[in-house]
Amino acid sequence: MCGIVGLFDTRGQRDIDAALVRHMNDTQRHRGPDESGIHCEPGLAFGHRRLSVIDISLGQQPLANEDGSVLVCYNGEIYNFQQLRTELLEHGHRFRTRSDTEVIVHAWEQWGEACVEHFRGMFAFGLWDRNRRCLFIARDRLGVKPMFYTMRPDGMFAFGSELKSLLALPGLSRAMAPQAIEDYFAYGYIPEPRTIFQSVEKLPPGYRLTQQMFEPLAQPQRYWDVSFQQNTRLGEDEARQELVERLSDAVRMRLIAEVPLGAFLSGGVDSSAVVALMAGVSSTPVNTCSIAFADKAYDESPYAAEVARQYGTRHYVQTVDTDDYALIDTLAALYDEPYADSSAIPTYRVCQLARQRVTVVLSGDGGDESFAGYRRYRYAVAEERLRRLMPAVARRPLFGVLGKLYPKADWAPRIFRARSTFESLARDLVDGYFHGVSLMSDSMREQLFTPSFRASLQGYRAADVLRAHASTAKLDDPLSLIQYLDIKTYLPGDILTKVDRASMAHALEVRSPLLDHELVEWAATLPPHFKLRGGEGKHIFKRAMTGHLPHNILYRRKQGFAVPLAAWFRGPLRERVCQALTGNGLLSTGIFRSDYLHQLAAQHLSGRRDFSAPIWTLLMFDAFLRKELGNAYAK
Questions:
Q1: What beta strand segments (E) does 321-393 contain?
Q2: In degrees rounded to 5, what are phi and psi of residue 570?
Q3: Which residues lie below 8 Å from residue 569, measured CB to CB, with a gap of 6+?
Q4: pLDDT tens digits for 145-197?
Q5: pLDDT tens digits, residue range 272-322?
Q6: In terms of Cα–Cα distance, which of 444, 372, 431, 440 is closest to 399?
Q7: CA spacing 20 to 30 A to 191: which of 45, 199, 344, 464?
Q8: Do 134 and 264 lie in a common domain?
């Protein structure tokens, strides 16, 4: 895996400062510590940090075609590169390396912008075609690899793998986008295409952008989307067999490497399935890595150990103190913009452990989105059934009033939180799902933000993100719709961002067989009752893996990478919570109301309410500001 940067002069062929490109490139050294490559010519510069995985001796970048007219810098893996190489050779192209990088160059020559439609893998790359005088950037279909870009006022287009590489540009505006702040305090991350800064955007998953010289900033163009058109002819037994075959193929493709390779093994269904199928196609024992928690309430390591014993893996376990909160400021520097998924802490640690043993790992990411594994899917579908029993004209006022009158019970499991359910039932499916996934509800954000900040939003609501995707999907089935929404938002914005930054911080490459786009496309065509049945998610996946994994692995309650935030904030982090929520830092931004910050702190610290998720979101925003503003913060 790698880090890339690029500068392209859209107004001509001005010289580009090589020292600046080198500085931008070096901000991402952690992504590729093995080698550094820089290419500069009038009007263009590429930088590349390399983590050597395939064709270690000859795969250096930036890499050009035979006459140097096409140049690429690339982050990712094209798993079908060997087949594409054969096809391109038949078309008359000549290769001088065995790397997947060179396939991109010749695929562009052969198919132009459509080259990305031939790639099966994870990727983000920039490509310069001197003859066509254009820069082409693209990102993989599901957003496994990141891509940030900006157009400077002077006509200089810049891109990079991480936001920090663009922040190295002199004079880049650091003005925060109000809509991004609204999004962050709803979702806990900032969905594509926004970043926290108005001046920088993310290229969305499944999009490409062609920037011509002497033209204004081009608009990204979508080249892929997932369709939930159901295949009603497929029987369940046939689907189970095909699922195993497709996942086995996706695993096999991801075992190509010239460096030590292993797998994450949490003991959950997805990672266990990946390890089981890896063991079936590996000639040597699989290396597996797990995190154990000192607090047994959060520890899944016995389940991981059971799978490791079953498949005879070389199993490595590291016990992490549950009070591993010292990473707060490290994470703020790692993610570059506010990011509030607290499972980033154990994810960082398991990547740290894995890198001590291997360079590449396979993960189980993506299974929940494709096969309906999240509990919230069950709740959302059940709520939609209730909505459809009553006309909206009667439902909205009735459940709206009940939601206001019913006492708050955010300490209880979702099934017992009638107030939250009533509030969801008063909305339509998209708004109700948004209400269910929000870290801070509409009413909480309204109380959190100052009137002047709310005015700057000009009526924008974070739910508009989901509404925009829903209007594109045009799906009637509730389960399919919320799966689609998660694939477009939560998967790239939260899950894949978390894994990319945590793994790249340790120069570790993570490959996700369950995110193979052909598998995702096939899973989307399965009837919803194959996925969610009788309140049980991943029905078809668990049935397919019955011969490979024990019952207690497949059907135990989903646990996840949780950390004890509520206890931290009333214990070792109490002083930091008080300092952040009642000090001058957050208030100095003009975004937050002092009385509400004090209320959140007082009610949580006294034990009257559990505001751990909103407080963590505020702490990470505070940590971002400390990193971004430095000594000027709160002075």
A1: 360-362
A2: -95, -5
A3: 577, 604, 605, 612, 615
A4: 999 999 999 999 999 999 999 999 999 999 999 999 999 999 999 999 999 99
A5: 999 999 999 888 999 999 988 877 777 889 999 999 999 999 999 988 776
A6: 431
A7: 45
A8: no
- On whether residue 231 sits in a domain, the answer given is no
Over the range 564-585, which residues count as b (16 or more CB within 10 Å of their CB) and which as e? Answer: bbbebbbeebeebbebbbbeeb
DSSP label at residue 197:
B
List 52's β-bridge partners, or say none: none
Q: For residues 442 and 434, what is the distance between their CA atoms, to the nearest angstrom?
A: 10
Instruction: Give 401 or 450, the one with higher predicted confidence.
Output: 450
Cis peptide bond prior to 62, omega within 30° of 0: yes
DSSP 8-state code for residue 29: G
- Write down the pTM of the prediction: 0.93
Structure token pair of residue 344: 């980033």
Q: Are 40 and 71 in contact (CB under 8 A)?
A: no
Q: Are residues 325 and 409 in the same domain?
A: no
- More confident site: 321 or 86: 86
Residues 60, 142 within the same domain: yes
Predicted confidence at residue 413, as pLDDT, reads: 45
What is the average pLDDT across 216-237?
A: 94
Contact 441, 410 (CB under 8 A): no
Does residue 216 have a cis peptide bond before it, meaning omega lies within 30 degrees of 0? no
198 and 283 part of one domain:
no
Domain count, the chain: 4
Domain of 613, in residue numbers: 565-632
